From TrEMBL:
Organism, scientific name: Coprobacillus cateniformis
Entry-linked InterPro entries: P-loop_NTPase (IPR027417)
SUPFAM superfamilies in the record: P-loop containing nucleoside triphosphate hydrolases
Full protein name: Uncharacterized protein
Protein origin, superkingdom: Bacteria
């Protein structure tokens, strides 16, 4: 018995689906033509308005010129929106939808046919295709045929899926259709994975699994950690979650509010097409080195990357290998834990007749142990200032917090991060591995930039 034939009732296009796709294509063509006419009309209006302002610039009073500039900006916005709509319609035309579910709401006779695609398609006030991120589309990912439900704005809607189909449409042509009462996504996934025509990461909206869908649509947790082996789809799920959140909270969230922290530029380039493919703007992408460089650009200069296979500097290669070990990180954490207890030596802070005892300063220092050392000293300086002002019954001159902070900094055994880093190598008994060619060219270590934040000076 052929198991696959039992699982998949049909793997060739259904006649009714061919007819439906032809209908959708015709309506898409109409919408594209209408949008194209709108773009041309707006472009004509823009050119004429611009020409009018140029020809009569000397004759227009300031108020009229201002009104014309406002009108021109409005025309420009209208045109930009029309172009976006046209661009989206062209993407829909290429592959209008990838799935269909038939849903019968509880206690209702009507069975609704729901086609699901990358984008929604509304024609003459009729929603013909649902966006994959819409609430009702979640049933495609979460249920097989049988009882099903979804969360709508008005509350939870219960019912049953009576049919579930999946399609591959390319350039407006139906290549295959699958229907099953059990999970059909394994076969579809194999077909998708066999397509290696692109070196870029692709969207996976047609093959998202139930548990992946739960991660993508999770609205209860502010922080989500996705764990998995290499190649298991962690990054892809994260990108699709971004697309969902941008859709779900479109009035509160935009691409400008999101940053992707990636390991390197190659990886950033690899994932760069996923969100635009899903109709979203590209997301700002940074590496940890970028972040460190932005934060420290006025303090240190960055050594350009070297290829470990090409460089002839064996000492550099040795240092790089050492800094890449787990041992290096563990030893750094031990060192930071120990040095934080002895780095600061509290003494009486005396300003004229005013005194802040060493015991008070020590107590405040450890009270703020959850903060980096520099921040701790700032907070202690504020505490001393308030102590002086509240107890200054004799009217002595009270130093400003900045002056007090200067005195506290003198109680540090080491005054800079570089000095601390150098001492770290001495503590490891590896002083020869500390290299500092000049005052402004500090060899950046990715992990130390983060680790020292808890013991920053």
């Amino acid at each position: 018995m052929n198991t696959q034939n039992n699982q998949h009732k049909q793997t060739i296009p259904f006649p009714d689906e061919i007819i439906h796709l032809e209908t959708i294509n015709k309506k898409l063509d109409l919408s594209i033509a209408e949008t194209n006419s709108r773009v041309e009309r707006v472009n004509y209006e823009y050119i004429n308005s611009k020409k009018y302002m140029t020809d009569y610039r000397g004759e227009l009073d300031p108020h009229e010129m201002f009104q014309n500039e406002l009108a021109l900006k409005q025309i420009d916005r209208t045109g930009a929106f029309a172009v976006e709509v046209w661009d989206k319609l062209m993407k829909i035309k290429e592959s209008p939808y990838f799935a269909r579910i038939d849903f019968q709401e509880k206690d209702e006779q009507l069975i609704e046919k729901i086609y699901i695609g990358r984008f929604s398609f509304l024609h003459e006030n009729e929603l013909l295709i649902y966006d994959w991120r819409s609430p009702i589309a979640s049933m495609f990912y979460d249920y097989e045929t049988g009882p099903a439900k979804y969360d709508a704005p008005i509350g939870q809607i219960e019912g049953a899926l009576t049919l579930k189909r999946q399609f591959k449409i390319k350039n407006g042509i139906l290549e295959y259709a699958l229907e099953s009462s059990i999970n059909i996504q394994d076969d579809v996934l194999q077909r998708v994975l066999s397509d290696t025509s692109s070196e870029k990461m692709k969207s996976i909206i047609s093959t998202i699994q139930k548990k992946q869908n739960q991660i993508i649509r999770n609205e209860k947790n502010n922080t989500i950690i996705i764990q998995g082996v290499a190649g298991s789809g962690k990054t892809s799920i994260a990108l699709h979650r971004i697309a969902f959140l941008l859709y779900r909270f479109k009035n509160k969230l935009s691409a400008r509010n999101i940053t992707i922290i990636s390991p390197n530029k190659v990886f950033g380039d690899y994932i760069s097409t996923v969100l635009p493919e899903l109709g979203e703007e590209p997301i700002y992408e940074l590496s940890f080195e970028n972040i460190a460089q932005i934060q420290l650009e006025d303090i240190i200069q960055f050594e350009s990357d070297k290829d470990p296979l090409e460089t002839k500097d064996i000492h550099w290669a040795k240092r790089t290998r050492f800094k890449s070990t787990l041992y290096f990180v563990k030893q750094m954490n031990v060192y930071l834990s120990e040095i934080s207890k002895t780095l600061f030596v509290p003494k009486d802070y005396i300003y004229d007749e005013l005194i802040a005892p060493a015991d008070f300063i020590k107590e405040r220092f450890f009270a703020y142990q959850s903060y980096p050392i520099k921040k701790r000293l700032q907070l202690i300086a504020d505490d001393i200032y308030h102590r002086f002002t509240s107890r200054n019954t004799m009217g002595y001159k009270v130093p400003r917090p900045r002056t007090i902070l200067s005195g506290l900094n003198k109680m540090l055994k080491m005054k800079s991060t570089i000095a601390l880093y150098k001492e770290f190598y001495k503590w490891l008994d590896l002083s020869e591995m500390f290299v500092l060619p000049d005052k402004k060219n500090f060899r950046m270590v990715r992990c130390i930039s983060l680790s020292l934040s808890s013991c920053s000076i």
